[in-house]
Design a protein that fits this description.
It contains 5 helices and no strands. Helix 1 (2-12) packs across helix 4 (54-75), helix 2 packs across helix 3 and helix 3 (29-43) runs antiparallel to helix 4. 81% of the residues lie in helices and 0% in strands.
Length: 118
């Protein structure tokens, strides 16, 4: 089971690369369609499969989403997918570095909020 969770989390890391692959015209149309479905499914505020029922929550996180991602990745040519993975990893690193600059502002707002609502 642990290996299955690790594989599912590894596949979920391909979501940013799939977003980038959507923009490339050489990506097959069926892969773009599936990647669009994944984006809607993964980032939807409405949970189609309720997480408060443990078995169904695992079905969503460990089977359905990773399966969709796996199928989509297989439909995208390897060269395109590898380029998108590299670009996504550098883009995520830039976002992570920018996030650090916002930490002081968030802390200031939290302290300010504590004084107001106290």
């Amino acid at each position: 089971m642990f290996d299955f969770k690790r594989r599912a989390s590894k596949l979920k890391r391909d979501i940013p690369a799939l977003i980038l692959a959507l923009k490339i015209k050489e990506t097959p149309l069926i892969a773009k369609l599936l990647a669009g479905i994944i984006m809607v499914y993964a980032f939807s505020p409405i949970d189609f499969i309720p997480d408060f029922i443990p078995v169904l929550g695992y079905l969503d996180d460990l089977i359905i989403l990773p399966l969709l991602i796996s199928i989509t990745v297989k439909l995208i040519p390897n060269e395109i997918m590898e380029n998108c993975r590299m670009e996504a990893s550098t883009h995520i690193n830039k976002i992570n570095k920018r996030w650090l600059y916002s930490v002081p502002f968030i802390l200031i707002w939290l302290v300010f909020s504590l004084f107001i609502f106290k």
